[in-house]
Design a protein that fits this description.
The protein has 254 residues and is an alpha+beta fold. 42% of the residues lie in helices and 20% in strands. The protein is built from ten helices and seven strands. It has a seven-stranded antiparallel β-sheet, with helices on both faces. A hairpin with a 2-residue loop joins β6 and β7. α7 crosses α8. It is globular, with a radius of gyration of 20 Å. The N and C termini lie far apart (56 Å). It binds zinc ion. Zinc ion binds next to α1 and α3.
Length: 254
Protein backbone atom coordinates (compact mmCIF):
# COMPACT_ATOMS: atom_id res chain seq x y z
CA UNK A 1 0.00 0.00 0.00
CA UNK A 2 1.34 3.44 -0.91
CA UNK A 3 1.24 6.49 1.37
CA UNK A 4 -1.47 7.98 -0.86
CA UNK A 5 -3.62 4.89 -0.46
CA UNK A 6 -3.05 4.87 3.28
CA UNK A 7 -3.97 8.54 3.66
CA UNK A 8 -7.08 8.17 1.53
CA UNK A 9 -8.27 5.34 3.75
CA UNK A 10 -7.17 6.77 7.07
CA UNK A 11 -10.53 8.26 8.05
CA UNK A 12 -12.44 5.17 7.10
CA UNK A 13 -9.83 3.12 8.97
CA UNK A 14 -10.19 5.20 12.14
CA UNK A 15 -13.98 5.02 11.86
CA UNK A 16 -13.80 1.25 11.48
CA UNK A 17 -15.48 1.41 8.08
CA UNK A 18 -12.98 -0.66 6.07
CA UNK A 19 -13.28 -4.35 5.42
CA UNK A 20 -10.86 -6.49 7.45
CA UNK A 21 -8.32 -6.93 4.64
CA UNK A 22 -8.11 -3.19 3.89
CA UNK A 23 -8.01 -2.37 7.57
CA UNK A 24 -5.09 -4.77 8.01
CA UNK A 25 -3.28 -3.23 5.04
CA UNK A 26 -3.61 0.28 6.48
CA UNK A 27 -2.48 -0.95 9.89
CA UNK A 28 0.61 -2.60 8.41
CA UNK A 29 1.44 0.54 6.47
CA UNK A 30 1.15 2.64 9.64
CA UNK A 31 3.56 0.32 11.45
CA UNK A 32 6.16 0.68 8.71
CA UNK A 33 5.74 4.36 7.75
CA UNK A 34 6.70 7.08 10.20
CA UNK A 35 5.10 9.86 8.12
CA UNK A 36 1.67 8.22 7.94
CA UNK A 37 1.88 7.17 11.59
CA UNK A 38 2.47 10.83 12.47
CA UNK A 39 -0.56 11.76 10.36
CA UNK A 40 -2.61 9.27 12.28
CA UNK A 41 -1.54 10.74 15.64
CA UNK A 42 -2.58 14.16 14.31
CA UNK A 43 -6.09 12.86 13.63
CA UNK A 44 -6.22 11.21 17.03
CA UNK A 45 -5.40 14.54 18.65
CA UNK A 46 -8.09 16.27 16.58
CA UNK A 47 -10.66 13.66 17.52
CA UNK A 48 -9.79 13.95 21.19
CA UNK A 49 -10.01 17.73 21.01
CA UNK A 50 -13.43 17.51 19.38
CA UNK A 51 -14.65 15.08 22.02
CA UNK A 52 -14.17 17.62 24.83
CA UNK A 53 -17.48 17.88 26.69
CA UNK A 54 -17.07 21.67 26.81
CA UNK A 55 -17.79 21.77 23.06
CA UNK A 56 -21.27 20.33 23.46
CA UNK A 57 -24.41 21.87 24.84
CA UNK A 58 -27.35 19.85 25.93
CA UNK A 59 -30.60 21.10 24.42
CA UNK A 60 -33.44 21.95 26.80
CA UNK A 61 -35.70 18.95 27.41
CA UNK A 62 -38.71 20.61 25.77
CA UNK A 63 -36.73 21.13 22.58
CA UNK A 64 -35.38 17.58 22.64
CA UNK A 65 -38.92 16.26 22.90
CA UNK A 66 -40.01 18.35 19.91
CA UNK A 67 -37.11 16.93 17.92
CA UNK A 68 -38.01 13.39 18.90
CA UNK A 69 -41.51 13.93 17.58
CA UNK A 70 -40.63 15.82 14.43
CA UNK A 71 -37.58 13.92 13.26
CA UNK A 72 -38.32 10.54 11.74
CA UNK A 73 -36.50 8.33 11.24
CA UNK A 74 -34.19 9.11 14.16
CA UNK A 75 -30.93 10.77 13.24
CA UNK A 76 -28.24 8.17 12.77
CA UNK A 77 -25.36 10.59 12.52
CA UNK A 78 -22.30 9.21 14.24
CA UNK A 79 -20.53 12.55 14.42
CA UNK A 80 -21.95 15.50 16.27
CA UNK A 81 -22.59 18.21 13.71
CA UNK A 82 -21.30 20.81 16.11
CA UNK A 83 -17.95 19.05 16.12
CA UNK A 84 -17.89 19.09 12.34
CA UNK A 85 -18.78 22.76 12.23
CA UNK A 86 -16.00 23.51 14.68
CA UNK A 87 -13.58 21.40 12.71
CA UNK A 88 -14.48 23.37 9.60
CA UNK A 89 -14.18 26.64 11.43
CA UNK A 90 -10.76 25.58 12.63
CA UNK A 91 -9.69 25.02 9.05
CA UNK A 92 -9.90 21.27 8.90
CA UNK A 93 -12.19 21.18 5.87
CA UNK A 94 -9.29 19.83 3.86
CA UNK A 95 -8.92 16.96 6.26
CA UNK A 96 -12.64 16.31 6.16
CA UNK A 97 -12.58 16.25 2.39
CA UNK A 98 -10.27 13.26 2.72
CA UNK A 99 -13.15 11.28 4.13
CA UNK A 100 -15.03 11.42 0.82
CA UNK A 101 -14.46 7.67 0.37
CA UNK A 102 -16.36 7.13 3.60
CA UNK A 103 -19.32 9.07 2.18
CA UNK A 104 -19.07 7.03 -0.96
CA UNK A 105 -19.27 3.89 1.06
CA UNK A 106 -22.20 5.03 3.18
CA UNK A 107 -24.36 6.20 0.35
CA UNK A 108 -24.71 3.12 -1.79
CA UNK A 109 -28.29 2.68 -2.81
CA UNK A 110 -29.23 6.36 -2.83
CA UNK A 111 -29.91 8.17 -6.07
CA UNK A 112 -27.61 11.15 -5.75
CA UNK A 113 -24.05 10.15 -6.65
CA UNK A 114 -22.16 9.87 -3.39
CA UNK A 115 -19.21 11.86 -4.67
CA UNK A 116 -21.57 14.75 -5.41
CA UNK A 117 -23.07 14.60 -1.93
CA UNK A 118 -19.57 14.52 -0.47
CA UNK A 119 -18.49 17.52 -2.52
CA UNK A 120 -21.61 19.45 -1.61
CA UNK A 121 -21.02 18.87 2.11
CA UNK A 122 -17.30 19.66 1.81
CA UNK A 123 -18.23 22.90 0.04
CA UNK A 124 -20.76 23.70 2.74
CA UNK A 125 -18.16 23.12 5.49
CA UNK A 126 -15.57 25.18 3.63
CA UNK A 127 -18.09 27.97 3.26
CA UNK A 128 -18.59 28.11 7.04
CA UNK A 129 -14.98 29.09 7.63
CA UNK A 130 -14.54 32.75 8.42
CA UNK A 131 -14.66 34.93 5.26
CA UNK A 132 -15.61 32.02 3.01
CA UNK A 133 -19.40 32.11 3.06
CA UNK A 134 -20.15 34.92 0.63
CA UNK A 135 -18.46 37.02 -2.03
CA UNK A 136 -21.54 39.19 -2.52
CA UNK A 137 -23.39 39.99 0.69
CA UNK A 138 -26.92 41.16 0.09
CA UNK A 139 -30.46 40.26 0.94
CA UNK A 140 -31.59 41.76 -2.37
CA UNK A 141 -31.98 39.34 -5.27
CA UNK A 142 -31.51 42.24 -7.69
CA UNK A 143 -28.04 42.79 -6.26
CA UNK A 144 -27.05 39.13 -6.00
CA UNK A 145 -28.14 38.05 -9.48
CA UNK A 146 -26.16 40.69 -11.44
CA UNK A 147 -23.07 39.97 -9.34
CA UNK A 148 -22.75 36.60 -11.11
CA UNK A 149 -22.81 38.18 -14.57
CA UNK A 150 -19.58 37.56 -16.46
CA UNK A 151 -18.31 35.22 -13.76
CA UNK A 152 -20.24 32.14 -14.97
CA UNK A 153 -21.30 30.82 -18.37
CA UNK A 154 -24.92 30.79 -17.22
CA UNK A 155 -27.34 33.01 -15.33
CA UNK A 156 -28.23 31.47 -11.98
CA UNK A 157 -31.78 31.62 -10.71
CA UNK A 158 -31.92 33.87 -7.68
CA UNK A 159 -35.13 34.00 -5.68
CA UNK A 160 -36.28 35.97 -2.68
CA UNK A 161 -37.62 33.62 0.00
CA UNK A 162 -37.81 35.76 3.13
CA UNK A 163 -41.61 35.57 3.12
CA UNK A 164 -41.21 31.79 3.38
CA UNK A 165 -38.78 32.14 6.30
CA UNK A 166 -35.56 31.68 4.30
CA UNK A 167 -33.99 35.11 3.79
CA UNK A 168 -31.35 35.42 1.09
CA UNK A 169 -27.94 36.30 2.55
CA UNK A 170 -25.70 36.44 -0.52
CA UNK A 171 -23.78 34.32 -2.97
CA UNK A 172 -20.37 33.22 -4.20
CA UNK A 173 -18.68 31.15 -6.86
CA UNK A 174 -17.87 27.55 -5.99
CA UNK A 175 -16.94 24.33 -7.75
CA UNK A 176 -18.83 21.04 -7.86
CA UNK A 177 -17.90 18.09 -10.02
CA UNK A 178 -15.02 20.01 -11.60
CA UNK A 179 -17.14 22.87 -12.91
CA UNK A 180 -17.86 26.37 -11.68
CA UNK A 181 -21.24 26.69 -10.06
CA UNK A 182 -23.27 29.40 -8.39
CA UNK A 183 -23.71 29.08 -4.64
CA UNK A 184 -26.54 31.07 -3.09
CA UNK A 185 -26.61 31.39 0.67
CA UNK A 186 -29.91 31.47 2.51
CA UNK A 187 -30.56 31.63 6.24
CA UNK A 188 -32.91 29.86 8.57
CA UNK A 189 -32.51 31.16 12.12
CA UNK A 190 -28.81 30.58 12.88
CA UNK A 191 -28.36 28.01 10.10
CA UNK A 192 -26.86 28.58 6.67
CA UNK A 193 -28.20 26.86 3.57
CA UNK A 194 -25.94 26.58 0.55
CA UNK A 195 -27.84 26.21 -2.71
CA UNK A 196 -25.58 25.13 -5.57
CA UNK A 197 -26.82 25.34 -9.14
CA UNK A 198 -25.53 24.75 -12.64
CA UNK A 199 -27.08 23.98 -16.04
CA UNK A 200 -27.93 20.33 -16.62
CA UNK A 201 -29.74 18.68 -19.50
CA UNK A 202 -32.49 16.25 -18.76
CA UNK A 203 -36.01 16.09 -17.42
CA UNK A 204 -37.12 17.60 -14.13
CA UNK A 205 -36.54 15.28 -11.17
CA UNK A 206 -38.06 14.81 -7.76
CA UNK A 207 -36.28 16.06 -4.67
CA UNK A 208 -33.88 13.38 -3.50
CA UNK A 209 -32.66 13.56 0.08
CA UNK A 210 -29.30 12.27 1.27
CA UNK A 211 -27.92 12.56 4.79
CA UNK A 212 -24.31 12.30 5.94
CA UNK A 213 -22.76 13.13 9.27
CA UNK A 214 -25.71 15.25 10.36
CA UNK A 215 -25.96 17.22 7.11
CA UNK A 216 -28.88 17.02 4.74
CA UNK A 217 -28.47 17.34 0.96
CA UNK A 218 -31.41 17.69 -1.43
CA UNK A 219 -30.76 17.14 -5.11
CA UNK A 220 -33.14 18.00 -7.95
CA UNK A 221 -33.38 19.29 -11.47
CA UNK A 222 -35.86 21.86 -12.69
CA UNK A 223 -36.10 23.59 -16.06
CA UNK A 224 -32.61 22.61 -17.19
CA UNK A 225 -30.89 23.54 -13.94
CA UNK A 226 -29.40 21.12 -11.41
CA UNK A 227 -29.78 22.12 -7.75
CA UNK A 228 -28.08 20.85 -4.61
CA UNK A 229 -29.24 22.31 -1.29
CA UNK A 230 -27.03 21.59 1.74
CA UNK A 231 -27.51 22.46 5.40
CA UNK A 232 -27.31 21.20 8.94
CA UNK A 233 -31.01 22.04 9.19
CA UNK A 234 -33.28 19.11 9.84
CA UNK A 235 -34.47 17.37 6.70
CA UNK A 236 -38.05 18.64 6.97
CA UNK A 237 -37.00 22.27 6.98
CA UNK A 238 -34.59 21.71 4.11
CA UNK A 239 -37.43 20.08 2.14
CA UNK A 240 -39.57 23.15 2.88
CA UNK A 241 -36.74 25.28 1.55
CA UNK A 242 -36.45 23.30 -1.69
CA UNK A 243 -40.21 23.49 -2.26
CA UNK A 244 -40.29 27.21 -1.52
CA UNK A 245 -37.46 27.77 -3.99
CA UNK A 246 -39.21 25.78 -6.72
CA UNK A 247 -42.43 27.69 -6.25
CA UNK A 248 -41.02 31.21 -6.00
CA UNK A 249 -40.62 33.53 -8.97
CA UNK A 250 -37.02 34.20 -10.04
CA UNK A 251 -35.56 37.69 -10.17
CA UNK A 252 -35.95 39.09 -13.67
CA UNK A 253 -32.81 39.67 -15.71
CA UNK A 254 -31.82 43.31 -15.81
ZN1 LIG B 1 3.05 6.18 4.40
Amino acid sequence: MTCDDARRRLHAYLDDELDPAQSMAVEQHLVGCAACAAGRREYDRLRQALAQPALYHRAPDALRQRWDVSVTPPLTSTRPRRALALAAAAGFAGALALSAPAWLWLSRGTETPAALVGEAISGHLRSLQPQHLMDVVSTDQHTVKPWFEGKLDFAPRVKELSAEGFPLAGGRLDAIGGRSVAALVYRRRMHAINLYQWPSDGPDTQHTLAQRHGYAVIDWRQDGMRFLAVSDLNENELKQFALAFDNATPAAAR
